[in-house]
Design a protein that fits this description.
The complex is a heterodimer of chains A (903) and B (111). Chain A is built from 29 helices and 23 strands. By secondary structure, chain A is of the alpha+beta class. In chain A, the strands form three sheets. In chain A, strands 1, 2, 3, 4, 5, 6, 7, 8, 9, 10, 11 and 12 form a twelve-stranded mixed sheet that branches. Chain A has a six-stranded mixed beta barrel with strand order 15-16-21-18-20-19. A four-stranded antiparallel sheet of chain A has the order 14-22-13-23. Chain A is elongated, with a radius of gyration of 38 Å. By secondary structure, chain B is an alpha+beta fold. Chain B contains four helices and three strands, in the order H-E-H-H-E-E-H. In chain B, helix 1 crosses helix 4. Chain B is elongated and about 60 Å long. The chains are: A alpha+beta (903), B alpha+beta (111). The interface between A and B is medium-sized, with 33 and 26 residues.
């Protein structure tokens, strides 16, 4: 369309809308001019004055002709519907005010449906759907090296490995390193140490990852190497929380692991992957990262790798190129890549990597919410259908007074729009109210939870959902019934029954609601059963009233580890002090809390045993524990002895094995008295030695990697005999541990004033940590299921109640012919029962299909768990029958005399 | 032909556009001019003229302005826009095709 014509049309439309009076007046003038001219013309031809005028008017279309023409002209403007909209809306509000119960039911149902959807969409959009905030985030890829053969999902990369990839990869332009394996303690101006999540990054990290600073600068390649000055960049959240957003923070120094580093800038807010990071430092700040083995040893793996795709390179090309480089590398350095460990390289877009855990979960929730909306819409459709029957007479009268079919339909559409928008607005409020909860929930699965907010897109989607619901509802009164709104032959009286077609639609809607509820409830049931199965898992640790807390070494770890005697003395003093507190039963110290993974795992060899070449080297977690540890943690001793106070430095080296590790090392032979030693290439990067150690005891397995994982093969050493890399206190109390906690902290600080106390948790809480995300997820899906159930039950009861009310006369006749109350009740219950049964059967089929998606979220049960399916079907049927009882009872209490007289 | 011919559907637009292509006119004058030029064969009902005119205006084919008419009264004069001139060509072309097709059919020799 030519632009000038378009502009002309727009200006005309706007004029019609906003200068309506002028336009109308001009039209009037134009038509009267015509009539006057025609009258004059007629008189010129010899007609008398009054006849001439009458004839001119007749030519316009007779009586009221001018008004008729005006209407026709107005129709050409294409703006009438807007002019009439306000009137329609007023009309809709008026008619809804007369049907308050109906309006409330519809608005609430829609609010729940739209609210659930908006909330889930907000979640999905904030995390999975939104592009990364990083500059050109679509080019970012994340590399990961894993060793599935020894159950290592992420073994990180060493400096020589990164150098190899950097040298040969043509599909990647830049690679950056990020290393967060070393613990850092930050000492602020007040002298109080805090543990911070620190990452040692290469100078190009910020450039590659595409993030800038909000204050000061980020690092650059000039910050690389041993000659650079130590610098630190704060994360936005850390700057806010720890420095209160101080605008003058740049230039201040912090002491990180005894290295003084200058704060040069604050990073812009962005999701942090793979871990939350408080402070980024350059390599020189971490002496370990500059050490000789770190730089030259292929197996000294400490870094994550991020990279950018070269222009025109696709993810697939990069993946296949890196695969090729990796397999060459594995072949050229067999000593660094044990065959049985099955080293692997994987490459994914950073966005996929960040969304990995959230994606399935959030899409499932979105699906569940969509189901709730469908059920809600089906319910509202039924309500509308029922109301439509009552309004047929009204529509008939309106049609008789000249309203066209399209006009009536528009009236209904506006009414529905008013309902849906009210529901949508209320739903949006529901979603907004739940936003904080959502963010907390999302944080369990996604590093991007902070980005969740209700923005324009979310609002737009809420609006569109409402509008689509309204439009769909406007067609409901027609479907299945006659194809005009107005029945050509309506009886003079009130029509109270509905045609078979509509009845079928009503019933199908109820069946659909029941079926959809069945699917949702089955999903919820499976997740809840999974939780129950997890709760029943034997952790190997049996202890209540046991409080654990980390008392980490502070400062540069490699150097601190060398101070074993002082550290041991301090930890033992702390332990003994705490043990002497009233209310404390046992106190023990170890390297890590029970059910928490150890910082260390090692290859271990058994004396006089040969490993078959196709089996991986025995590999297990290493934990150092003191003599009280097994008792305090409730880990059962299965053979031999535990540790004694005499197992110290200078005495014979001893170990205790967990059952599964003993089996890995010695098969079915008795391990007590046999000897084991650490082995493997990694050993030389640790302060541990390869001396032979005698197995003196056998203990039960614990599940340190999570309740849904296999038991963790573990080798225990005496805390006093080995180097100390970390300290964890276990306190078994006779009283409530929470009450004793402040006293314990005071006691610790009396012995070691600056000791950090971290991760305070009872063993029950640790156990619960691995289940918490599942619990939240199950809670969400269950509440959607409950919502669906309630809506569907209200739906089925409503439809039956309606059916009963329209059949009062029929029931009256039946009763006067001898049907008694129980028989009538059975009739109505039977009617509902059929709907329920069909719904449950269809739902069952749907559930069998849909729950396959849940597979990876289940534990201990299959997606087709018969017990769950049976229980859900039973609950649905029972609640359904209860819902049908109310209308059935009403039917049974019909007084035939009254019913028949009313006709 | 004793009675004025009923207008073929849609031809009113074409006729109005053609009249206005000759000179800007007011509504009444368009009706008069049509009658004259077609030697009274085509007679447009006064009523149907105005909805058609306004539709053409809303489509952007014609534009209107208020001017003094010959008898010194204010009247709404319509004239063709550039887009309207193009539209006239298109519709005239359509009409020619339709007319010649119908003429050809009507003149078929009956066996």
């Amino acid at each position: 369309m030519a632009i000038d014509r378009f502009l002309r049309i727009v200006s005309l439309r706007l004029r019609s809308l906003f200068r309506r009076n002028d336009v109308e007046q001009e039209l009037d003038e134009e038509l009267h001019y015509h009539v006057d001219q025609q009258t004059a013309e007629n008189m010129r031809r010899g007609m008398p004055a009054d006849t001439a005028r009458a004839d001119a008017l007749r030519a316009m279309g007779g009586m009221g002709g001018i008004e008729l023409r005006k209407e026709q002209v107005r129709d050409t403007r294409g703006t009438r519907w807007i002019e009439e909209l306000a009137g329609d809306a007023r009309f809709a509000l008026r008619s809804l005010r007369r049907a308050r119960g109906f309006a409330t039911a519809v608005v609430l149902t829609l609010a729940l449906g739209i609210g659930a959807n908006t909330a889930m969409f907000t979640l999905l959009r904030g995390t999975v759907l939104r592009p990364l905030p990083n500059r050109h985030g679509e080019q970012l890829v994340y590399l990961r090296q894993s060793a599935p053969g020894v159950q290592h999902a992420n073994v990180l990369f060493s400096v020589p490995e990164i150098a190899d990839y950097r040298a040969s990869a043509k599909t990647l332009t830049a690679m950056a390193e990020y290393s967060s394996v070393l613990p850092f303690t930050l000492v602020g101006d007040d002298g109080a140490p805090v543990r911070i999540a620190t990452a040692v990054v290469s100078g190009n990290y910020f450039h590659v990852i595409g993030l800038g600073s909000v204050l000061g600068r980020v690092m650059s390649v000039h910050d690389d190497g041993p000659a650079a000055a130590p610098v630190a960049v704060l994360s936005y959240a850390f700057w806010m929380d720890h420095f209160g957003g101080d605008p003058h923070v740049v230039g201040h120094t912090v002491r990180a692991n005894d290295q003084v580093a200058t704060i040069v800038g604050v990073l812009e807010p962005a999701p942090q992957y793979p871990e939350r990071t408080d402070v980024y430092v350059n390599t020189v700040t971490s002496p370990h990262h500059l050490s000789a083995t770190m730089v030259t040893e292929r197996q000294h793996r400490m870094s994550e790798v991020f990279a950018r795709l070269a222009p025109n390179a696709t993810v697939e090309q990069a993946r296949s190129e890196l695969d090729r480089i990796a397999s060459n590398m594995f072949r050229d350095h067999p000593e660094a890549y044990e065959k049985a460990a099955h080293y692997e390289l994987s490459l994914s877009t950073l966005r996929d990597a960040e969304n990995e855990r959230a994606s399935l979960m959030f899409w499932l929730l979105m699906g569940a919410a969509a189901f709730v909306l469908l059920i809600a819409c089906a319910n509202v459709a039924n309500l509308t259908l029922m109301r439509g029957v009552g309004r047929e007479r009204e529509m008939l009268v309106r049609a008789a007074l000249g309203a066209s079919n399209g006009r009536l339909r528009r009236l209904l559409a506006v009414e529905n729009l008013v309902l849906a928008l009210a529901g949508g607005a209320l739903g949006l409020l529901v979603a907004l109210a739940g936003l904080r909860l959502l963010v907390v929930f999302a944080a369990q699965f996604s590093p991007r939870a902070d980005e969740i907010r209700v923005d324009g897109v979310v609002l737009a989607v809420g609006l569109v959902t409402s509008a689509v619901a309204a439009i769909a509802l406007s067609f409901v009164p027609r479907i299945g019934g006659d194809h005009t709104l107005v029945m050509p032959l309506a009886p003079a009286g009130r029509r109270t029954t509905i045609g078979r077609g509509r009845q079928r639609v009503q019933r199908s809607l109820v069946v659909a609601q029941v079926a959809l509820s069945m699917v949702l409830l089955t999903g919820a049931g499976l997740l809840v059963r999974t939780l129950a199965k997890l709760d029943a898992v034997e952790t190997g640790v049996r202890a209540d009233h046991v409080l654990t807390m980390d008392l980490p070494l502070q400062g540069d770890l490699p150097r601190e580890v060398m101070k074993q005697p002082q550290n041991l003395a301090r930890y033992e003093a702390v332990r003994d002090r705490v043990a002497a507190l009233p209310g404390v039963d046992v106190a023990a110290v170890g390297m890590a809390a029970p059910l928490r993974p150890s910082m260390l795992d090692m290859d271990v060899k058994a004396e006089n045993r040969v490993i078959p070449p196709n089996r991986p080297t025995p590999h297990g977690a290493v934990k150092t524990v003191d003599p009280n540890y097994f008792v305090a943690a409730g880990i059962s001793l299965l053979g031999g002895r535990g540790f004694e106070a005499t197992d110290r430095r200078g005495t014979a080296r001893v170990v205790v094995l967990s059952q599964s590790f003993a089996k890995q090392l010695f098969g079915d032979e008795d391990p007590i008295g046999r000897r084991v030693a650490f082995s493997g290439q990694m050993l030389k990067f640790t302060p541990f030695t390869d001396e032979w150690r005698t197995v003196v005891g056998l203990v039960g397995d614990t599940r340190d990697r999570g309740l849904d994982r296999d038991p963790t093969p573990t080798l225990y050493e005496p805390f006093a005999q080995e180097v100390i890399v970390n300290g964890t206190l276990l306190v078994r109390t006779t009283a409530d541990p929470a009450v004793l906690q402040p006293m314990i902290a005071r006691a610790i600080h009396e012995v070691a004033p600056h000791q950090l106390i971290e991760h305070v948790a009872t063993i029950e809480q640790i156990r619960d940590e691995t289940v918490a995300p599942r619990r939240l997820n199950a809670m969400f899906i269950s509440s959607f299921g409950a919502l669906a159930l309630v809506i569907a039950m209200v739906g089925i009861a409503g439809v039956l109640a309606f059916s009963v009310s329209t059949r009062t006369a029929e029931i009256g006749i039946r009763m006067s012919l001898g049907a008694d109350a129980p028989r009538v009740r059975r009739m109505v219950l039977g009617e509902g029962g059929v709907l329920l049964a069909v719904g449950v059967v269809i739902g069952l089929a749907g559930a069998l299909f849909a729950t396959r998606l849940l597979h990876s979220l289940l534990f201990g049960i299959t997606p087709h768990d018969p017990a769950t399916l049976g229980a859900v079907a039973f609950v649905l049927a029972a609640v359904g029958v209860a819902a049908c009882w109310v209308p059935a009872e009403r039917a049974a209490s019909v007084d035939p005399a009254v019913a028949l007289r009313a006709e | 032909m004793s009675k004025p011919a009923d207008l073929v559907q849609g031809t009113l637009d074409l006729l109005i556009l053609k009249m206005l292509a000759l000179e800007p006119l007011n509504g009444w004058a368009i009706g008069q001019r049509l009658k004259q030029l077609s030697s009274e064969v085509l007679q447009v009902s006064d009523g149907s003229l105005y909805p058609a005119l306004h539709k053409l205006e809303q489509e952007g084919w014609v534009t209107a302005e208020w001017r003094q008419s010959e008898n010194n009264r204010r009247a709404k004069f319509y004239s063709l826009t550039r887009a309207g001139r193009k539209q006239l060509q298109i519709e005239a072309g359509n009409w020619d095709r339709l007319a010649s097709a119908i003429t050809a059919l009507v003149r078929l020799q009956e066996v």
